[in-house]
Amino acid sequence: MRDPQPLSLAIAGLFLLLCLPRIAVPGSYLFDEGYYIPAALSLLQGEAVLNREHPMLAKELLAVSIAVLGDNPLGWRALSLVSMTGALFLAMRAMWHFTRDRTASLMFGFLLATSGLTLGLARLGTLDAPMLLFAAAGAHALAKDRRWVAAVFFGLSLACKWTVAPLLPVLALLVGMRGAGGPRAVGIELLRFGIVPLAVYAVSFLPGFFVRENPFVPAEFLTLQSVMKDALLSYNAPNPYAARWWELPLGLAPYWALAQAVDGAWRFIVLIQNPVGTLATLVALPFAWRDRRLRLLLPFYLTPIVLAAGSDRVAYVHQFALPMAVGLAMAALMLARMPRYWTVGTAVASGVVLAFFHPYITAAPFADRGAGERAIWIDRWRIVDFDTWAPVHRPHFDAREKLQAICLQRPVDCDIAMLESPLADLMAEHGLTRAAVAFRTGGAGSRVLALNATPAMRERVRESLRSGFPPSAGGREEWTLSVRRGDFVAVGLFEGIPRDRPAAERRVRSYLVSLEATPGS
């Protein structure tokens, strides 16, 4: 069968063109860019390691992108654009080398390219696209039986984001059992896909040892991993964007990253799975029991879902990108075995659905906010009240109540936690120029750590620490941070336990005790 590489390149090129329109809109941080871009800038300037709840590599690559293209929307998002396009091409090539099935390879690429989630993540300066690029590169190397190279690439994926971590033992087990492999072969593969990725992962942290402020310390490397785990597991506050574990494979939990007036027009950016691809994946699942190729992919699809089902951590649609890709691979393999009209019909349907959603993924201008309603096909997708996103002036107490509603998702009591306050959008929405957020901490000697903040914000945190905490009733202390429009803050409050105590004993507790907001003029 003829190699479909030219057509694979064409699909990847078409995908790149679909991603480009309005990629610089909005000109401010969008979605999780508010975490990762400041972290990349801080690394670039050698200041500090921000966003310590995620690994380092993707933020280091973001820093390179910004250094080359500038601190602007293109510099923020070019890495994801190139990474996702490369991931799409390598995924198709991996499918071809695994199966030698031309139809399955091209159909897999087309389903991935027409997924709103794939396209949306390619346009955001986040960690997901680089993680997927290296995962696809690992799969491609594995398909060509270059196992050591594959292990390195999976390590690079792990160094971007932990998404691939639970899949590595599954991969080692399946590779070791291939053919006449026995326990010894499984053990060798467990070592290969354990030690090599972990070594690559560890090397990616090296730049963090050379920053000026609070650098990594070799003796605390393992403790840092525990802190990262605890921070990630602390994301359990209910909110409308969060999905229950079974909603992700059903495509019921989109994420509206933008739904507001920008540059004189209403614009929307939604991360959403293509319903056609979701349906094809669900149909393919029963075929796994009859098709060996699907059966080999099934554990990689089910493992993240089972882990999500057993966790109380909230999940979001972008965290499902890798399992979604595996599911679409299963769908492509199923469709390749079916009559051609099923394959063509599915491709056409998937393309038509993407054509409808494309303006809602790429911030196309609309005349009014009611346009967003047309993209809500089922009630579960209605997770944004477009009225409340309107940039109108509201009474000061309304803004205060809304800010309190977000901040009071915690108090939390866990090994490490963050009180996330994406105040910039809310302040702009309500016409606020300043807000004061006050926290009560757990006693004398409490420390405050600004995990994600602009340099100006970090300086204000340092200034607050230098001036000390005003005493309050009950022997506790309060700390107030003045927030100005444009600030993005995530603050962790550490209870007053000496630093020489084990990390597990340094408990964290954060409470919002008061909030004041001042309307703009």
Describe this structure in words.
The strands form 3 sheets. Strands 3-9-5-7 form a 4-stranded antiparallel β-sheet. A 3-stranded antiparallel β-sheet has the order 4-8-6. It is globular, with a radius of gyration of 24 Å. α4 runs parallel beside α7 (128-143) and α9 packs antiparallel against α10 (183-203). Helices cover 50% and strands 12% of the residues. It folds into 2 domains: 5-361, no CATH class; 396-519. It contains 18 helices and 9 strands. The chain is of the alpha+beta class and 521 residues long.
Structurally, the number of domains stands at 2
Distance between the termini: 69 Å
Helix share bin:
40-55%
Integer average pLDDT = 77
Short summary:
The chain has helices at 5-19, 33-44, 57-69, 73-99, 102-113, 116-121, 128-143, 147-160, 167-177, 183-203, 221-233, 275-284, 292-309, 321-336, 340-361, 396-407, 423-429, 455-467; strands spanning 255-262, 265-271, 412-414, 419-421, 432-441, 447-452, 477-484, 489-494, 508-519.
Short key terms for the protein model shown above:
alpha+beta; 2 domains; three-stranded antiparallel beta sheet; 9 strands; 50% helix; 12% strand; globular
Give the SSE map:
Elements: H1 5-19, H2 33-44, H3 57-69, H4 73-99, H5 102-113, H6 116-121, H7 128-143, H8 147-160, H9 167-177, H10 183-203, H11 221-233, E1 255-262, E2 265-271, H12 275-284, H13 292-309, H14 321-336, H15 340-361, H16 396-407, E3 412-414, E4 419-421, H17 423-429, E5 432-441, E6 447-452, H18 455-467, E7 477-484, E8 489-494, E9 508-519
Antiparallel strand pairs: 1-2, 3-9, 4-8, 5-7, 5-9, 6-8
Helix pairs in contact: 1-4, 1-5, 2-3, 3-4, 4-5, 4-7, 5-14, 7-8, 8-10, 9-10, 9-13, 12-14, 12-15, 13-14
